[in-house]
Amino acid sequence: MKTLRYLKKLVLILSLITLPAIVSLADPPGGPDPGGDPGTGGGTPVGSPLGEGAWILVALGGIYGAIRIRGIISREKQQEDQ
Fold first, then answer.
1. Between residues 40 and 11, which one has the greater pLDDT?
2. What's the pLDDT at 66?
3. Torsion angle of alpha carbons 21, 53, 51, 18, nearest 10°?
4. Which of 47, 63, 67, 80 supports an S-S bond with 27, CB 3.0-4.6 Å?
5. 20-29, pLDDT tens digit by residue?
6. What is the count of structural domains for the chain?
7. Residue-level pLDDT at 81
8. What is the pLDDT of residue 43?
9. Is residue 1 in some structural domain?
10. 9 in a structural domain
11. Confidence check: pLDDT of 62 > 80
């Protein structure tokens, strides 16, 4: 159980450190109005949304972490039974 408490603290600390950094990397939507004739297409688009691929990676990382924690807990239970 000591390992589980350690893992909870570790996940909390890492999420508090990395979440603001990830949020600050996102570009603001839109940009300055290109002006001029709407038919000419204006300037190049500014900003880029966070793609769907990033959310898939986050979900896969969460699943991987859950599987690892489940394995650690089951190993601790087996050691306690012995």
1. 11
2. 92
3. -10
4. 47
5. 877 777 666 6
6. 1
7. 80
8. 57
9. no
10. no
11. yes
In the structure encoding, which two tokens stand for residue 62, read together?
Answer: 């969460």
Domain coverage including residue 80? 50-82
Helices (H), the chain: 2-25, 52-81
Q: In whole angstroms, give the CA distance from residue 42 to residue 52.
A: 27
| pLDDT confidence of residue 20 | 80
6 in any annotated domain: no
Judged against a pLDDT cut of 80, whether residue 78 lies above it is answered with: yes
State how far the alpha carbon of 53 is from the alpha carbons of 7, 15, 47, 82, in Å.
27, 20, 17, 44
Residue type (1 letter), 53: G
Q: What is the pLDDT of residue 40?
A: 59
Residue 33 lies in a domain: no
Residue located via tokens 């893992």: 7
Whole-Å CA distances, 47 to 20, 30, 36, 61? 19, 6, 20, 26
Which residue matches tokens 């190049």?
Answer: 44
Q: At what angle do helices 52-81 and 2-25 cross, to 10 degrees?
A: 170
**Cα end-to-end distance, the chain, whole Å:** 15
